[in-house]
Amino acid sequence: MHRVLVVDDEPQIVRALVINLRARKYVVDAAHDGAGALRLAAERHPDVVILDLGLPDMDGVDVIRGIRGWTRIPILVLSARQTSDEKVEALDAGADDYVTKPFGMDELLARLRAAVRRAEPATGAGGEGVVVETDAFSVDLAAKKVHRDGRDVRLTPTEWHLLEALVRNSGRLVSQKQLLQEVWGPSYGTESNYLRVYMAQLRRKLEADPSRPRHFVTEPGMGYRFEV
């Protein structure tokens, strides 16, 4: 049973989300402002957060940064802001997905399920015992850990899922559509800005020179390739 934190200052939206989530056996907490969201996140340790950006006391992007300061739990933005720059800002701050209002409940719940799946440990033997070493960092697929300079590198669930998809196809071109569908779900395929944001974040965290990446290579117009 997963715990969801809903953060929105519109009572009707909170009520609709609480009813639909509880009907699907989620445990739900609700906050109506940023301060309440940060407090409940620290107290209740939700498995996923659904977050509006237009909160009465602070911008939702600041809430994302506050949560990202101590946890990697998935954050699903639900907002009326629709411009590409606003979406990229939220993703760059650490959000895992972005749904614009008005929204379809079925789509939102599908994206919620996908976010929860990305955050859960992988099962099966497909990647057990596999450690990929580069000259700058190592990736332990079984333990879901990345080490650089003798220390763990903190990745969000989405960053890890993207890294894993590339590492498992080391040396091979992975198309944008394939990455989007594998990381975000089958309903995705054209949101290339998601990939740009998250590839930039992986490069900042793992490449010796992010402006001249050696390991996360862009094939313009086609996709990305991981090189050891």
UniProtKB/TrEMBL annotation:
It is found in: Cytoplasm. The modification 4-aspartylphosphate is found at D52. Keywords: Cytoplasm, DNA-binding, Phosphoprotein, Transcription, Transcription regulation, Two-component regulatory system. Residues 129-228 bind DNA. Residues 3-116 form the Response regulatory domain. One of its GO terms (molecular function) is phosphorelay response regulator activity. GO terms for cellular component: cytosol; protein-DNA complex. Residues 129-228 form the OmpR/PhoB-type domain. GO terms for biological process: positive regulation of DNA-templated transcription. Pfam families: Response_reg (PF00072), Trans_reg_C (PF00486). SMART domains: REC (SM00448), Trans_reg_C (SM00862). Member of the two-component regulatory system KdpD/KdpE involved in the regulation of the kdp operon. Upon phosphorylation by KdpD, functions as a transcription regulator by direct binding to promoter regions of target genes to positively regulate their expression. This is Transcriptional regulatory protein KdpE. It comes from Streptomyces armeniacus. The lineage of its organism: Bacteria, Bacillati, Actinomycetota, Actinomycetes, Kitasatosporales.
